Structures are given as structure tokens and as C-alpha cells.
């Protein structure tokens, strides 16, 4: 167990125990009649909330007990004392949190008046006891529970409180020029730092924050920028005389394997990740947090191998240079590596700690009581909001940190009000999680008080790739200095998109767009152009520039593959099952292809894309064409489609139902997730499963966001729920479906990352059972062609983050040449697997493709690649795009590389399938499964 540090406050003082840093909530709720227990908390927060005052003595001043304070400590001029307060509606909840902050005034005679953070009156109370006990009481007034927090004694803060209260009065009586605070004099005394007698009502916490970051000792310029460009303060407030020895919040020597952040030479204390959270972290997560921390603090990263190869690296703090170009990072780890947890750990660390202790209030022993940041905005797809909150709760507990999410039931006005409150009220919420779309509707409110936002996190950050997107522009206008983008999907195909994302994270780092275009985009595009394939100078130049770009961007982009968590996860088996098309399907293919117009093979033709969609539907179930718009308008002929409407009319559906029966009857309560790209396909599967008495739930694009979390939770927990039907694109992202240990991918997307997203829903941290992933592919049809194309893309993208070959958003984005189209529109019936035919001539007795057996691949310059050689993205791009020149052997070789590790199992050898469910299904439905690839992890 972690034990707390005995800090040596000053060299000549004996060791003393300072108050424990207990990860308390930012505003501890107070129970009635618990005065003694709360007293310490209040006193310690009281110290914290004094803020860093103008005079050097106040910053580390111990909070005086209330009883010893002078009645005039707040304001000698108006016989009133001013307090901050917290309020909430009465609640029976175990973990109570506060709804808002505000102020109280106490007048001699015993009247307490309560105000919210905007200065609006929220009640009053008479207090007859000794004034010193006020902090120990929970007041009830106007249906609210109110607790005083601390007495305002700092001159500047006092002035701000008065301004707020005054501002409210002023608003109320806008016709009146008479400013009045009850009996308070109109003339506001000038404080030592405010010689302006004009009263300017100002947003309270904006000013408070300014106070907070005023350094008390002389800071070097680097230190100021470390704190953040926006918050650096003028040197006029520094006090070069002041000497203070600062202490980190945690004692690293008492923590097993602490994570100590790197630092700039100007750092005064170590920042150490809270052991409460760091004890749970995997080693790649420890590295990830340090990486993100360095980036958001603008510290120049150590060389990559230093970060990854050295034992105990994360337990050491390295002095780094300031890198003024960097303020953010892209964490592009593959799915399931814990990007959310890493980000939460970083947020928690930054909220609670700072390397520059002198810029915040500290305990007597010099332990910083405030962090480097205080407000965080997280933007994510609406489907992930609940998941973020859950993860905060899982790793931190929501009683420690205030998380605001906007309820879907809110009116727009309510949303705006809550956003305003989040920005204005400092201590209730530290993190707000918004959906991308919601961001637009509350952008004005954010804009108005944007200066309080310290850190922006964009989950599924590849959504910001479009430079003209409104969302991107709103986020840019918020001008939040520190940014973290998370994306498990590699940045996609386009250097323009790449520029947009990078320029958003670290503005200016790639220069202006014009410069970037001239320097990188044009020469790299030229090198990629197949017509330049013999122009060695252009190709060489393109390669060099790609390399240069990688070098610039790897300072703030981190990507690890899922192999880093394999050892923490139960084993996983991947099975690709080839399913024989039914006669109905074969008829449908023929009918469609024969009835297509002559422009089918025109690459620009819309009809070719519509036919592709139609063929994909037939692979799932021929009855789907009944509702296909293209089929009905162009090919539609009731004569044709009537014969396709029977239910179990596709090979994949037959295999699916057999697998499901086996899972239901042959395993010990295992659950299954079934994924498709088409909701209509899910409808068909749903009907079949309901007819088979299987208990299911479903999550797709039409599921209201407020229901999603409940569906996921009950699927994971409710033992009687057997299956979840999931739509790949709208439902898959970010969900944890570890209640299931089997997943059936009913159809493939062109984009491998869509499928990977879906597959990693079950095989992720928290999973305790071995996992089985089944991909169903219709033998010899478009399904197989998609699989082949996908496998190639996936393999080639593995080592290049900004991979130019990696998946695109949808089939419509994908470009096909004539050869591709011919290939897509051909149906090969006399084979158990066209993919196997392409890569191998074995008899399917379980032979495994290993790297030695993969023939070397030849590029168009005649250069040969051994199987272990990394093919750069550029080379891969050429290999793929230039398929007209590619002979079959090369294509086969490429694909073989993608299937390294898979065993080839023909129908005679299905008994070799290591999964009994697949084995029994394949043997029993021998006529439906034609071939299998199997890859045990
Ligand atoms: N160190 C850990 N120990 C136990 N569980 C963990 C750990 N790290 C992450 N997890 C769990 O693993 C699951 C996946 O993590 P998370 O959602 O953060 O991954 P991700 O990288 O964001 O994936 P995706 O891109 O799919 O959203 C979560 O349930 C999370 O709580």
C-alpha cells in the first residue's frame, strides 16, 4: 500500500506531517452534524482557496481558524464579511456533489445572505451562534443546502466578489445609476493593485485564474511558456527575494514504480502520477502518459528509443528542452490500448499538480495545492459520452472530480445555461464532455468565456480532418492551447487532411498551407504518380520528403499496435469462414450482371458503384435487393426479385444460424456480438434469431443516445441476453462489449479499420474469456474481393501511421480502375476459396503461411523486398495503384504476406479447426462452409 510522505518543509525544521493529499473531490460534500470531520477539510481547502495573493505572505499563509478572524477581515468599510459558498438541492445520494458556487455576506446582527456565482440572491438565514462556527454548518434556505466554504480575505478576491454582487444589482436596476450593496458604500476602496476607482463588474473566475497564475518568484521566460502562453503573467508580480523550497504532491520514494514526469530545467517540483491511478497502468500506458505530458507542456521529446527501450524509463524524470512549436499531441494507438485511461490519468495529473509550484497556492510545506490546468473540454462522438464518464468513474471515482455532461433531454437553453455555468463556476466541474454535434449549438457560449479552457481533448479526432468543417473551425476559434487528439484510426489517405489535423494540434508547425503544399504535397504526389514511376529523381525526392515529414510529426504523434496488450489479454482466434452462395444468390448475381447497362465498367459511372452495393447486398441476403433503390429504378423487375424473398436464402445466413445454435447449445453461457454494415441485414438476422427463440438486443445508428449506454450495460451484465446486433459504423466505435467472447462479422467494409473497430469491441481489457472472431465471406463473390483488398491495405498500413494506403471512409471514396471493376463483377463458382487459390496451392490440411514462405515482392523498379522488409507507404501505394502492371504473382505475394499466421483448412480437414463451435458448424453444414482460414493468437 502506498504510504504518504513525511515532507521536510524547510531544511532547519523538523519533519512534520502535512495534511494528506487524499485525492479529495474538488468540493467535498459535507454531511450534516459532521462538523469535526469536515473541519480539516475545510481548513485545508481554505488554504487552497485563498489563492495567490499580491503580497508575498498570503500565498502560503495558513488558513486562520474562523473564530480568530477579525470581523473586518473581509472588508473594513461595510461591516460585512464575505464568504464563498457551495449549494445543492437536498439529496439522499450517498456521494453528494455540489450544484454550484456562490457567495455569502454576513452582517453584524446575524443575517447571512446567499448569492449564486452570478450574484443572484438564493436565500438568507439568521445566524445567532458564534460567527466562528459558521463554516461548520449546513444551512437550509429556499429549498437549497448551503455550505460556506471559506471567508474571503484576500483584497483582490474581495473586490471581485463585490463586483459580482454589485454587477448583479446593477443589472437588476439598470435604470439606476446608484450602485448599492445594501449598506455598502458606493466607493470601492482601491487595493494595492487596483488603483482604479471605477467599478467594473467582471467575470469573477476569470480574474481568479489570473491571480492563480501570478508567479511569486522570478520566472524565466521558459517557465512562463511552460505554464502556457496564455497564462504567463507579467514579471511585475514576481518577487525575486522569495525563497521557498517546494515539495511534490507525492513522495516518489514511497511509491512502487512511480511515474515521474519529465521536466524543464525551470521546474520546481516533480510531477508524479497519482499512485491511485498509476498502479493500474500497463507499461505502454505509462509511456503514453509521459508522451502526452511532454507534448502539452511543450517539452522536446527524447529520441524514440530512449522513450521505449530503457528499463524503468517512466520512473525517471529527464530534463528536456522547451519546444515552442509543440502544445499538443496525437495519440493514435490502435483500439483498446486504453487511450481513454491514459488521457484521464493525464487530466487528473494536470488538474492536481504543476511543476511550477510558485505559481499556485501551496501548503505550508510547499506542496502545490492547485494544478496546471483547471478546466478541460472533451469532445467525442455522442455515443461515447457515457463511456467517458464511466471510465472517469472506473478509474477515479466521480466523487473526486466534477464531470459535466449535457443531458439529451435538455432544451437548447438549458444546454447553454449549463455550459455557461461550467465555464463560470470554478470548483464544481473540472471536465465537460460534449458530443461533436452539440459543440456547434453551444459554440457561442464557449466562445464567450473560452479563456478559462485549458485543455481540449478530441476523441476520434480524425473527424477533424476536413479543413472546412464547422466543428474544426469552432474548435480552432476557441484557441485552447493544450490539445490532445485521440484516434485509433490512422490518419487517412490525404496529405491535405493530414495537414488540417496537424495544423490544428500544433498550429504553424508545418508552416502555412501554401508552404506545405509546395514543399511536401506536390513533390510527394508527383512521386506517387504512376506516370513518374521511372523518374528516379522524383521518386527519391518523394521518399526523402515523406521521411522528413515523419520526423517532424513523430515528435507529437504516438502510435502503438495492439500487440502491446496481447500479453494482458486472453487468447484470441480469428477465423475466416468462406460460405458457399445459395442457388438463389447465384441467380441474383446473374440477373443483376446481365441486366446492367453497358457503362458498368466505366470507372466514373455511378451505376458501377450502385451495382457494387447491390452485389454486396446479395451476398448478405438476396431479399435485400427488394428495397434497393437502384435495383427498383433501373433493374427493377418484379419477375426477378419475387423469387429472392425467402428468409434463409444466403450461404452466410445459413452458416450464421448454425454458428449461433452451436454457441447457444455448446458453450457455457457465452454471448455473441453480430456486426453488419447494413441495418436491413440486421433486421433479417434479428427476425431469424427471434424465430429461433434467441434473446437479443440491438444497437445501431437509430438507437437514441440516451439508450445506448443502458443497452451496453445490460448486454454485458444480463446473463439471459444471448446476442447483441451491432451496426458497424454507427454503433461500433469505442464500445466495450466484453460481456461477449464471440463476435461474428457478417460483412466486410472496404475500410479495414471499420472492421477492426468492431472486432476489438470484445477482445479488450477486462475480457476474461478466450475470444473467437468469425468473418463470414461469400465464396467467389464480391465479399471475397473486398476481403482481399482490405487485407492488402491493412498489411501495408501497419508501419506507417500517416499511411497513404490505409482505409478510406467508404466504398464510394475508393477509386477503381477497369481491372478492379472487372474483378469485382466476376463471380467464381467452382472454388472453395478464391483467396486461397490466389495465394496457395496446398490441399488445406492446415498449412500455415509463414514469413519464409512468402515470396518476395518486386516493385516496379525491379527492386526486391524480402518478406521482413518494411514496404514504405509510398512503395506500397505504387504497388497497389499500379495494378495494371502487376502480375498475378505479385498480387498473390502481397496478399500472402497479409495472411501470415493463418492456417489453411479445406473442407476435408475441418476437424482441424481448433474451435469446436466452428468445427461443428462447418462439419454439419459442410455444404455451406467451403474453406476456412484460422489464426490462433
Ligand atoms: N491498465 C488497464 N487495466 C485494466 N483495464 C484497462 C486498462 N487500460 C484500459 N483498460 C480497459 O480497457 C478498455 C479499453 O480501453 P479504452 O476504451 O480506453 O481503449 P481505447 O484505446 O480508447 O480504445 P478505442 O479506440 O476502441 O476507444 C476499457 O474498458 C478500459 O477500462
From TrEMBL:
This is DNA repair and recombination protein RDH54. InterPro entries: Helicase_ATP-bd, Helicase_C-like, P-loop_NTPase, SNF2-like_sf, SNF2/RAD54-like_C, SNF2_N, SNF2_RAD54_helicase_repair. It comes from Zygotorulaspora mrakii (Zygosaccharomyces mrakii). It is an enzyme of class 3 (hydrolase). Belongs to the SNF2/RAD54 helicase family. Interacts with RAD51 and DMC1. GO terms for molecular function: ATP binding; DNA binding; DNA helicase activity; DNA translocase activity; hydrolase activity. Residues 35-60 have a biased composition (Polar residues).
Amino acid at each position: 500500500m502506498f504510504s504518504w510522505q513525511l515532507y521536510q518543509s524547510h531544511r532547519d525544521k523538523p519533519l512534520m506531517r502535512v495534511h494528506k493529499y487524499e485525492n479529495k473531490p474538488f468540493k467535498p460534500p459535507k454531511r450534516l452534524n459532521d462538523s469535526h470531520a469536515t473541519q480539516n477539510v475545510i481548513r485545508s481547502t481554505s488554504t487552497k482557496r485563498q489563492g495567490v495573493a499580491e503580497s508575498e505572505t498570503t500565498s502560503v499563509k495558513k488558513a486562520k481558524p474562523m473564530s480568530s478572524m477579525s470581523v473586518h477581515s473581509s472588508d473594513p468599510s461595510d461591516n460585512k464579511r464575505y464568504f464563498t459558498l457551495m449549494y445543492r438541492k437536498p439529496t439522499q445520494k450517498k456521494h453528494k456533489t455540489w450544484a454550484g458556487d456562490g457567495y455569502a455576506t454576513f452582517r453584524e446582527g446575524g443575517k447571512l445572505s446567499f448569492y449564486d456565482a452570478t450574484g443572484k440572491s438564493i436565500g438568507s438565514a439568521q445566524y445567532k451562534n458564534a460567527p466562528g462556527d459558521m463554516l461548520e454548518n449546513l444551512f437550509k434556505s429556499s429549498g437549497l443546502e448551503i455550505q460556506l466554504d471559506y471567508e474571503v480575505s484576500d483584497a483582490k478576491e474581495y473586490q471581485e466578489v463585490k463586483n459580482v454582487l454589485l454587477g448583479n444589482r446593477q443589472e437588476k436596476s439598470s435604470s439606476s445609476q446608484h450602485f448599492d450593496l445594501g449598506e455598502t458604500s458606493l466607493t470601492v476602496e482601491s487595493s494595492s493593485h487596483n488603483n482604479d476607482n471605477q467599478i467594473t463588474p467582471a467575470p469573477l473566475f476569470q480574474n481568479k485564474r489570473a491571480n492563480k497564475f501570478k508567479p511569486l518568484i522570478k520566472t524565466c521566460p521558459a517557465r512562463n511558456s511552460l505554464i502556457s502562453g496564455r497564462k504567463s503573467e507579467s514579471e511585475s508580480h514576481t518577487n525575486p527575494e522569495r525563497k521557498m523550497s517546494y515539495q511534490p504532491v507525492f513522495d516518489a520514494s514511497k511509491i512502487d514504480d512511480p511515474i515521474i514526469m519529465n521536466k524543464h530545467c525551470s521546474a520546481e517540483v516533480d510531477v508524479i502520477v497519482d499512485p491511485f491511478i498509476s498502479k493500474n497502468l500497463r507499461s505502454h500506458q505509462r509511456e503514453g502518459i509521459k508522451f502526452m505530458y511532454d507534448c502539452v507542456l511543450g517539452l522536446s521529446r527524447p529520441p524514440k528509443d530512449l522513450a521505449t527501450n530503457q528499463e524503468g524509463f517512466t520512473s525517471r524524470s529527464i530534463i528536456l528542452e522547451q519546444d515552442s512549436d509543440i502544445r499538443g499531441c496525437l495519440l493514435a494507438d490502435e483500439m483498446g490500448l486504453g487511450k481513454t485511461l491514459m488521457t484521464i490519468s493525464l487530466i487528473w495529473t494536470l488538474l492536481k499538480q504543476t511543476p511550477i509550484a510558485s505559481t499556485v497556492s501551496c501548503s505550508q510545506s510547499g506542496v502545490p495545492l492547485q494544478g496546471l490546468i483547471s478546466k478541460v473540454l472533451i469532445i467525442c462522438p455522442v455515443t461515447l459520452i457515457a463511456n467517458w464518464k464511466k471510465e472517469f468513474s472506473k478509474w477515479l471515482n466521480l466523487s473526486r472530480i466534477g464531470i459535466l455532461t449535457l443531458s439529451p433531454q435538455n432544451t437548447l437553453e438549458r444546454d447553454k445555461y449549463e455550459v455557461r455555468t461550467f465555464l463560470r463556476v470554478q470548483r464544481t466541474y473540472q471536465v465537460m464532455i460534449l458530443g461533436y454535434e452539440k459543440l456547434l449549438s453551444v459554440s457561442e457560449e464557449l466562445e464567450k468565456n473560452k479563456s478559462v479552457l485549458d485543455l481540449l481533448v478530441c476523441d476520434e479526432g480524425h473527424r477533424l480532418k476536413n479543413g472546412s468543417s464547422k466543428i474544426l473551425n469552432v474548435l480552432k476559434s476557441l484557441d485552447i492551447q493544450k490539445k490532445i487528439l485521440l484516434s485509433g484510426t490512422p490518419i487517412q489517405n490525404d496529405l491535405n487532411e493530414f495537414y488540417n489535423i496537424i495544423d490544428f494540434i500544433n498550429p504553424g508547425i508545418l508552416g502555412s498551407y501554401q508552404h506545405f503544399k509546395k514543399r511536401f504535397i506536390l513533390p510527394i504526389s508527383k512521386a506517387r504518380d504512376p506516370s513518374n514511376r521511372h523518374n528516379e529523381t522524383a521518386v527519391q525526392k518523394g521518399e526523402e520528403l515523406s521521411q522528413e515529414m515523419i520526423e517532424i510529426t513523430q515528435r507529437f504523434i504516438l502510435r502503438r499496435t495492439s500487440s502491446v496488450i496481447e500479453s494482458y489479454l486472453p487468447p484470441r482466434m480469428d477465423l475466416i469462414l468462406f460460405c458457399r452462395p445459395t442457388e438463389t444468390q447465384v441467380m441474383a448475381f446473374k440477373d443483376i450482371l446481365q441486366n446492367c447497362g453497358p457503362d458498368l465498367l466505366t470507372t466514373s459511372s455511378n451505376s458501377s458503384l450502385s451495382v457494387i452495393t447491390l452485389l454486396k447486398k446479395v451476398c448478405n441476403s438476396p431479399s435485400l435487393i427488394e428495397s434497393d433503390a437502384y435495383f427498383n429504378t433501373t433493374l427493377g423487375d418484379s419477375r426477378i426479385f419475387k423469387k429472392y424473398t425467402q428468409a434463409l436464402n444466403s450461404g452466410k445466413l445459413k452458416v450464421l444460424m448454425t454458428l449461433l445454435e452451436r454457441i447457444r447449445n455448446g458453450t457455457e453461457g457465452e454471448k455473441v456480438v453480430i456486426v453488419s454494415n447494413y441495418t436491413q441485414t440486421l433486421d433479417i438476422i434479428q427476425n431469424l434469431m427471434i424465430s429461433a427463440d434467441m434473446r437479443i438486443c440491438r444497437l445501431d445508428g437509430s438507437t437514441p443516445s440516451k439508450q445506448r449506454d443502458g443497452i451496453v450495460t445490460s448486454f454485458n451484465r444480463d446473463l439471459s441476453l444471448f446476442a447483441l446486433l451491432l451496426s458497424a459504423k454507427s454503433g461500433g466505435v469505442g464500445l466495450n462489449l466484453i460481456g461477449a467472447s464471440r463476435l461474428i462479422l457478417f460483412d466486410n467494409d472496404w475500410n479495414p479499420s471499420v472492421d477492426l473497430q468492431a472486432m476489438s469491441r470484445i477482445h479488450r481489457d477486462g475480457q476474461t474469456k478466450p475470444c473467437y472472431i468469425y468473418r463470414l465471406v461469400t465464396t467467389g463473390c464480391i465479399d471475397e474481393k473486398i476481403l482481399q483488398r482490405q487485407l492488402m491495405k491493412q498489411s501495408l498500413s501497419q508501419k506507417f501511421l500517416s499511411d497513404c494506403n490505409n482505409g478510406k471512409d467508404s466504398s464510394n471514396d475508393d477509386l477503381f480502375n477497369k481491372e478492379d471493376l472487372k474483378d469485382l463483377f466476376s463471380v467464381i463458382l467452382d472454388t472453395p476459396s478464391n483467396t486461397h487459390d490466389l495465394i496457395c496451392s496446398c490441399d488445406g490440411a492446415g498449412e500455415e503461411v509463414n514469413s519464409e514462405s512468402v515470396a518476395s515482392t518486386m516493385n516496379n523498379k525491379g527492386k526486391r523486398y524480402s518478406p521482413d522488409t518494411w514496404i514504405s507507404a509510398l512503395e506500397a501505394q505504387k504497388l497497389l495503384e499500379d495494378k495494371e502492371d502487376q502480375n498475378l504473382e505479385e498480387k498473390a505475394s502481397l496478399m500472402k504476406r497479409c495472411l501470415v499466421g493463418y492456417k489453411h483448412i479445406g473442407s476435408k480437414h475441418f476437424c482441424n479447426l481448433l474451435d469446436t463451435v466452428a468445427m461443428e458448424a462447418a462439419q454439419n453444414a459442410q455444404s455451406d462452409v467451403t474453406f476456412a482460414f484460422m489464426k490462433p493468437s
